[in-house]
Write a structure and sequence with these properties.
Blueprint (H helix, E strand, L loop, with lengths): L5 H4 L13 E7 L9 H9 L9 H17 L12 E5 L3 E7 L3 E11 L5 E11 L1 H33 L3
Antiparallel strand pairs: 1-5, 2-3, 3-4, 4-5
Length: about 170
């Protein structure tokens, strides 16, 4: 479920110190109910996710198209793959990863939040700095695909993996 940006900005996350010139694009509640010590499990599931191996054919196709177009137009290094992210930091309740290419500088922030009922869940925030007109055009072009296809299907896949995995 998409959340208001204040669901992220109101928290005292470490990420706020690092993303000064990036825009907060989206905030999402992740379908990952758990206890106070389940954040490492979320990190493990997310770090093993590869959109190119998604169970959704539409997600696989969109990421394959992005990779091929990116390689052909020189947006990133050939062979960088569909998820060329590197970890910025990992704490007990936060994980931040980033990607930088000719279209955007993007940061994904995952946090573990208490819901006030004794349960916790993951939360994802997406920060983006568009690189010029190319980045602006790219982000505008992919927006409907992100909201209608990519996020719903990836979150559904995450939920299935979360419910199916036992630690």
């Amino acid at each position: 479920m998409r959340l208001p940006k204040s669901a992220h900005t109101a928290r005292s996350w470490r990420i706020h110190e690092l993303v000064g010139d990036l825009d907060l694009e989206d905030v999402w509640a992740l379908p990952t109910p758990g206890g106070p010590d389940d954040f490492p499990r979320l990190v493990r599931l997310l770090s093993g996710f590869d959109p190119a191996q998604s169970s959704s054919a539409a997600v696989r196709a969109l990421f394959a198209i992005r990779e091929k177009v990116g390689e052909a137009l020189g947006w990133e290094d050939a062979g960088a793959g569909t998820a060329p992210f590197r970890t910025l930091y990992l704490t007990d309740d936060e994980w931040a990863i980033e990607t930088i290419n000719r279209t955007v500088h993007g940061v994904l922030h995952f946090g573990w939040v208490a819901e006030g009922t004794g349960t916790y869940r993951g939360q994802m925030a997406i920060y983006v700095k568009r690189n010029g007109l190319l980045g602006t055009a790219y982000m505008t072009a992919i927006k409907p695909f992100r909201y209608k296809i990519v996020y719903p299907r990836i979150l559904a896949e995450l939920e299935r993996a979360w419910r199916g995995e036992r630690t």
